[in-house]
Design goal:
Length: 292
Amino acid sequence: MCICRRFSTHEDPFGVRSSPKQTDHQRQMMAKGLPKQRPIEGVKNIICVASGKGGVGKSTTTVNLALAIAAEDPKSKVGILDADIYGPSIPKLMNLSGEPELSADNKMEPLVNYGVKCMSMGFLVDETSAIVWRGLMVMSAIEKLLRQVNWAPLDWLLVDMPPGTGDVQLSIAQSLPLKGAILVTTPQDIALADVRRGATMFQKVHVPVLGVVENMSVFVCPNCGTSHHIFGQKGAQKLSRETGIEILGEVPLDGRVCELSDAGQPIVVAEPNSSQTAVFKSIARKVLEKAS
Ligand SMILES: Nc1ncnc2c1ncn2[C@@H]1O[C@H](COP(=O)(O)OP(=O)(O)OP(=O)(O)O)[C@@H](O)[C@H]1O
Ligand SMILES: [Mg+2]
C-alpha cells in the first residue's frame, strides 16, 4: 500500500466510523482496543475545555468558567480535573499545593480552593520535575486522576485538556460520558484552523461541541481606551458562520487576567464585578443552559 494512503487523514485508525463492509466480528475486534465509556461515580455532568493550539487560554478559561458556574448556580458543586500531565497549570491557577490525602477506601481526596475540588498531576510530582512518560503511562495516570479520586458529589466536572487532538484527548472523549466540549481559541487564523481540527475530532466521537470561547479577542488600552485587535479580528465569527458552532463569549486580552492568574487568584473571584468576570459569567450561563 502506498505510504500516503496509509497515512491518509480519511483513514479511521480508532474505528470511530465503521465501514459497512465490516462484519460484526471485525467490528467487535476493533472495539476491543477502544476505551470503554464509563461514568465517574457521583459526578453528574462532565465538560472538557480543549483547544487545537497550545497557550490560547484553556486553563485560564477552565478555572474562571468553573468559578463562574459556581457563582451562577450557587447550589452546584464544581470540580476541575487537570488532564495536562506534562504541563499541569491548575495548582498554580487555583493556588493549591500539597499531596492529596488518601481516604479509607484508598481514594485520593481532591484539593479544594474557592469551593472548587481540584485534582492534578501537579499535586503528585514536584513542580520542577519533568514527566518523561510515554502515551500508555500518561493514559494510566489520567485514569487514576479521574477514577481514584473522591469527587462525589459533584454537579459539574470541568476537564482542562492538554492542547491538540492526540491520544489523551481522544481517550478522554471516548472513555467519559462528556456532556460536551468547549473549544478555546484566539482570533488568529492559525489557531482557528486548529479549532476546526478539534471540532472534527469531537464530532467523530459523538461529543457535542457546546461552543467556542474566543480568548484574547481584543486589547483595550487602559490609558486611551482604544481597542487593538492584536491577534486579528472576527476570526471566531467567521468560524461560527462556516461551521455553525456557537461563540459562547469573547474574553479580552487583559493584563489583570494574566496577573491574577499568576497570583493564583482567578479574576472571577478576585474581581467579581469586573467586565471580564461578566464575560465568564455569561459563558457559564450559556454552558449551564446547553449542557443541563
Ligand atoms: N484573556 C487573557 N488576557 C491576558 N492574558 C491571558 C488571557 N488568557 C490567558 N492569558 C495568559 O496566557 C497564558 C496562557 O494561558 P493558559 O495557560 O490558560 O493557556 P493554555 O491554553 O491552557 O496553555 P497550554 O496549551 O500550555 O495548556 C497565561 O500566562 C495566561 O495568564
Ligand atoms: Mg493549560
